[in-house]
């Protein structure tokens, strides 16, 4: 990129930049929208939300514009005729490298980037075609890539001429709506690699400001054009925007940038443009890049709760908050927000209980500050159900568990044990609440009808309590379950409103019942006569307790044959029946159970995949990472016993490694922050080496006697971790 001292060469541009500041203040104020939400237009497509409107307290669906806008397009100015091809340009570059004379290349760059019209003249595939649709931007991507790849290897005066030209384009007076040529120019300029250098950030900021201030219709075009950019270039643009935000928040050299008070619009503008790329990424299946590539870990170090409270108080008003754009906040940061929000709710509920007690002139009791659950191991499910049903008002208090007949004190370990055993029992096939699908290795709700769905509410409450108390669970639900759990993310006030109903596709069914989904996929692609060969109707059959029952997918479905013309409708209704309608009562109880504990506007920040990570943690164990982050008490990491321990553990099978993790921490899942977040400690046990290891799961601590050799350590450790149910006091 540009060298460290290159910024001095741009000092001559300061007057032009000042002019941008003066002119764009007025232009930005005229054109800047209050939020990046596309209007509802009939026959539109669905675009992912660019930001959240908390004033409505619900997720927004954004209806995109039709492929061709019905409003008349602004007339496109005639473009200059430019005939240089990719090969011509490459030949010029090679000649310049050989001769040292860069005049031809310099002329090309200075002319091409001198205005938006020239950019289009150079890079538009056909200057005589309007390219006014979302399907084709008309940009010659190969030529753009070649020109940008060569740019950073040209002399500084060439690079400087490009930046001067961009400033000329940004200073253009806009008298009406942007043309599609203008949007093409913006799309091309965003890919300029020069903007990776902090010395260009003032120019970059003004480019971003103009793009952020475009109309919703223009954003619609940019979103659809951006999804056609190659994965490599797409990722580079996203990384460049994230770096811009990070360095503006925490500049390595503050003197490089204007004072923050004079450029408060930098970060909001960059974040809004990043939202366009996030929307484009969500339109593709599979996405161009992972949703985690939009995370900005720098935000982990700002005052997240202030951001959260600003978002709650001001919504999407003129006050900017990163919570308006949750895709940029990492799962670790979202976990912090949810935990602190939970803690504040716990404190508030406990304080109210104390005030109520004192106002009735009753003696305060410490137990009133907690959700105390007392259960018998032999009646685990029924006792837990009774306790949670009786103590609905206390669900938002800190959880404490007592096993009847055991002397263990719950400092966190008993709670983990309770969750583990309860989940294991409820999800057992003999219990009948959930069906385990071997092909997909996940559980799904049983569609059997019953009189009481309270146990499904219990499972939902358990998941809510786990998130609320920062416990990870070994639950194997498909991604569709978490999508339904956020439909809607806030419990509706009207109890007649349907909950847990979301748009489902054949892809969702593939994740649960791959064999059935494959059969339906074959039906869709069948080239013969569907009606005559399959002889199916809009009716499905299910076995319930040995009895075959039929259900119509639509009114009079048993009389409507499935044909080549209506088979798509049949498949969609079939999938909706399996994943929504047939299990509605079961899932509604589960939904209300989860939200009875976890009701929080912080859920609006989460994607379904992130809810799954918060509930289940990560199943992938990295014992080497655990070794690096382990703390020691009474031992040094170089001691022989410790070296024996890690040699044995790293050689364990995955099953034994999970047992060790469960033995020491009460869970075999890895928390959101990875192994380092476990705060795992190995302490020296001053007992006979005949003793087995002991664990304090409340503190993620393993007490290890100084065994004499590796064989003895391995034998005692395996015995200990394989017989680890129950608690006692030493």
UniProtKB/TrEMBL annotation:
<comment type="function">
    <text>E3 ubiquitin-protein ligase which accepts ubiquitin from an E2 ubiquitin-conjugating enzyme in the form of a thioester and then directly transfers the ubiquitin to targeted substrates.</text>
</comment>
<dbReference type="InterPro" id="IPR000569">
    <property type="entry name" value="HECT_dom"/>
</dbReference>
<dbReference type="InterPro" id="IPR044611">
    <property type="entry name" value="E3A/B/C-like"/>
</dbReference>
<feature type="active site" description="Glycyl thioester intermediate">
    <location>
        <position position="698"/>
    </location>
</feature>
<dbReference type="InterPro" id="IPR035983">
    <property type="entry name" value="Hect_E3_ubiquitin_ligase"/>
</dbReference>
<keyword id="KW-0597">Phosphoprotein</keyword>
<keyword id="KW-0833">Ubl conjugation pathway</keyword>
<dbReference type="GO" id="GO:0000209">
    <property type="term" value="P:protein polyubiquitination"/>
</dbReference>
<keyword id="KW-0436">Ligase</keyword>
<dbReference type="GO" id="GO:0061630">
    <property type="term" value="F:ubiquitin protein ligase activity"/>
</dbReference>
<comment type="pathway">
    <text>Protein modification; protein ubiquitination.</text>
</comment>
<dbReference type="GO" id="GO:0016874">
    <property type="term" value="F:ligase activity"/>
</dbReference>
<feature type="domain" description="HECT">
    <location>
        <begin position="391"/>
        <end position="730"/>
    </location>
</feature>
<dbReference type="Pfam" id="PF00632">
    <property type="entry name" value="HECT"/>
</dbReference>
<keyword id="KW-0808">Transferase</keyword>
<protein>
    <recommendedName>
        <fullName>Probable E3 ubiquitin-protein ligase HECTD2</fullName>
        <ecNumber>2.3.2.26</ecNumber>
    </recommendedName>
</protein>
